[in-house]
């Protein structure tokens, strides 16, 4: 019986994730051998989000800019 409940809870979690992906029109990043590419991503909790695209071809990326320019929001968007 314990296995049934554990599987049911996992199924419900996957179902909730799938509903959120469809509702918000989320997509998954594309990983290549030499790059990571994310298109039109945004922070899902913002009321009026700005969509960004990012392609990374190096192992290290330095994000710079003035205060309040969206660096933290960009990192939160990627980490969600």
How does this model look, in words?
The protein is of the alpha+beta class and 80 residues long. It has one domain. Helices cover 40% and strands 16% of the residues. It has two helices and three strands, in the order αβββα. The protein has helices spanning 2-24, 71-79; strands at residues 30-31, 36-41, 52-56. The chain has a three-stranded antiparallel sheet, with helices on one face. The longest helix has 23 residues, at 2-24.
Which keywords apply here?
about 80 residues, alpha+beta
Which residue ranges are poorly predicted, with pLDDT under 50 across at least 5 consecutive positions?
Answer: none
Helix content: 40-55%
N-to-C series of helices and strands: HEEEH
Q: Structural class of the secondary structure composition?
A: alpha+beta
Strand order of the largest sheet: 1-2-3
Shape, principal axes of CA atoms:
elongated
User: In percent terms, what proportion of residues is strand?
Assistant: 15-25%
pLDDT averaged residue by residue? 85
Major sheet size, sense and barrel closure: 3 strands, antiparallel
The total count of strands amounts to 3
Q: How many alpha or pi helices?
A: 2
What's the structural domain tally? 1
Rounded Rg: 17 Å
The N- and C-terminal alpha carbons lie at a distance of: 34 Å
